[in-house]
Automatic annotation (TrEMBL):
Membrane spanning residue stretches: 29-48, 54-79, 104-129, 149-173, 185-207, 227-247, 259-283, 315-334, 354-372, 378-401, 413-434
Membrane topology label: Multi-pass membrane protein
Name recorded for this polypeptide: Amino acid transporter transmembrane domain-containing protein
Keyword Transport in record: yes
Gene Ontology CC annotations of this record: organelle membrane
Location(s) in or outside the cell: Membrane
Organism classification: Eukaryota, Viridiplantae, Streptophyta, Embryophyta, Tracheophyta
Gene Ontology biological-process annotations: amino acid transport
Organism: Flemingia macrophylla
UniProt domain Amino acid transporter transmembrane: residue ranges: 26-429
Matches recorded under InterPro entries: AA_transpt_TM
Record keywords: Amino-acid transport, Membrane, Transmembrane, Transmembrane helix, Transport
């Protein structure tokens, strides 16, 4: 009966992407590396330096390595179970192990996470280009600094132009591998930020103006519980699991996916630590939760103001180029949620369905970002739960369920450890953040 039920579930799972026999083009390892790395190097990179202030340099680097290792383990779980089953999507894979409730849990988690992330990307873009107001202080955006206060430098108009002329052409691409060039540019922009930040830090070091670094946590300033609040930042940063199946489906050889994942993880570990180290070296304990705020300060020199503007603009463009890869899995999961039980062709080959869903998502994201620019904190708590589920808990749960009988004792022990770490650290982080928010109120 168990085998029959699994067969019924998998027969109803339709791929959202063209399979090899439907598309003559195969993705490349380089394209997969760019897309995976871009998914990981999103908005979270600007929070990395603040974690170094809490953790210290050595524990911070070790935590980056630990989360990267767990990410590699859980992605390997996903790839193995996808190869052993019949599904070609994350939700379908969970359906094989846990039925409709498992499939629904993945879809809801991905939709909440990715939709929230896309809104936050647009909010940050609006802040960079058009400024914001916090605690009664008005921060001008780059457009307002350069051109002044006009209707065409407002948030609504600036974001509309970005959405129409940068994001729309990219989200209309039907193959995830087609985003490899924009993803490569996105990574290059992250490297530009590192180059500028490291140059400024080394110049400050040469002139004796750098700040002292903490090698280990300073428990006179932070508590043990505060250390756990940094974990979700790294989990969110390394959480590319929702794009594993779309990228894997387009690779010429499925075995190449594991290589692409390890290369991407190595790149991101290096980028995360470089950003954290040099920004912390430059700003010290004055570093903000979003290091972009540190660069959003008036400089006394023309060169300093130019560097600040380059950092902010490069980061804004970086987010605009990360947007399509996150939109890809969001669109796929919404389509699978709505049309999973209907006899429909794959989304990429159904032009009316693809275009209407793409335009609706982009318009809705734009409207929410413009109407509710302070929604950031709501999604901070939401993302701490859903990202942990899609990245760690769901893959580990499949190993423990072991519907295909391929898990070894070592795999199950590792799965239990992953779930305990994920639930424990996220629970403590959410409780600590909730108490801190209550104190601020």
């Amino acid at each position: 009966m168990k085998a029959a039920s699994v067969s019924n579930i998998t027969e109803g799972v339709e791929p959202l992407l063209p399979l090899q026999n439907e598309s003559p083009e195969n993705g490349s390892i380089a394209g997969a590396v760019f897309n995976i790395s871009t998914t990981m190097i999103g908005a979270g990179i600007m929070s990395i330096p603040a974690t170094m202030k809490v953790l210290g340099i050595v524990p911070g680097f070790l935590l980056i390595l630990l989360v990267a290792l767990i990410t590699d383990v859980t992605v390997e779980f996903m790839l193995r179970y996808t190869s052993s089953g019949k599904s070609t999507t994350y939700a379908g894979m969970m359906a094989e192990s846990f039925g409709s409730p498992g499939s629904l849990a993945v879809k809801i988690s991905v939709i909440i996470t990715n939709f929230g992330v896309l809104i936050i990307y647009l909010i940050i873009l609006g802040d960079v280009l058009c400024g914001n107001e916090s605690n009664g202080t008005k921060h001008l955006g780059i457009l307002q600094e350069w051109f002044g206060m006009y209707w065409w430098t407002t948030r609504a108009f600036a974001l509309l132009i970005v959405a129409l002329f940068i994001m729309l052409p990219l989200v209309m691409l039907r193959r995830v591998d087609s985003l490899r060039y924009s993803s490569a540019i996105s990574i290059l922009l992250a490297l530009v930020f590192i180059a500028i930040c490291s140059s400024m830090a080394l110049c400050a070091l040469w002139s004796g103006q750098t700040r002292s670094l903490r090698i280990v946590p300073d428990f006179s300033q932070v508590t043990v519980l505060d250390l756990f609040t940094t974990v979700p930042i790294f989990v969110t940063g390394f959480g590319f699991h929702v794009n594993v199946h779309p990228i894997r489906a387009e690779l010429g050889k499925v075995a190449h996916m594991g290589l692409a994942v390890r290369i991407s993880l190595s790149i991101c570990v290096a980028i995360y630590f470089a950003i954290g180290f040099f920004a912390y070296l430059l700003f010290g304990d004055s570093i903000m939760p979003d290091v972009l705020v540190n660069f959003d300060q008036n400089s006394n020199t023309t060169a300093g103001r130019l560097l600040n503007d380059i950092v902010r603009l490069s980061y804004a463009l970086h987010l605009a180029l990360v947007f399509p890869i996150m939109n890809y899995s969001l669109r796929a999961n919404i389509d699978e949620l709505i049309f999973s039980n209907k006899n429909k062709p794959p989304l990429a080959s159904d032009t009316p369905r693809f275009v209407s869903l793409t335009l609706t998502l982009l318009a809705l994201t734009y409207l929410v970002a413009v109407a509710i620019p302070n929604i950031w904190y709501f999604f901070q708590f939401l993302g701490s739960t859903t990202v942990v589920c899609t990245s760690f808990i769901f893959p580990a749960a499949m190993v423990l369920r072991d519907m295909h009988g391929i898990s070894k004792t070592r795999d199950k022990v590792m799965a239990i450890m992953v779930i305990v770490l994920a639930v424990g650290t996220s629970g403590i982080a959410i409780w600590t953040n909730f108490n801190a928010s209550g104190t601020d109120l």
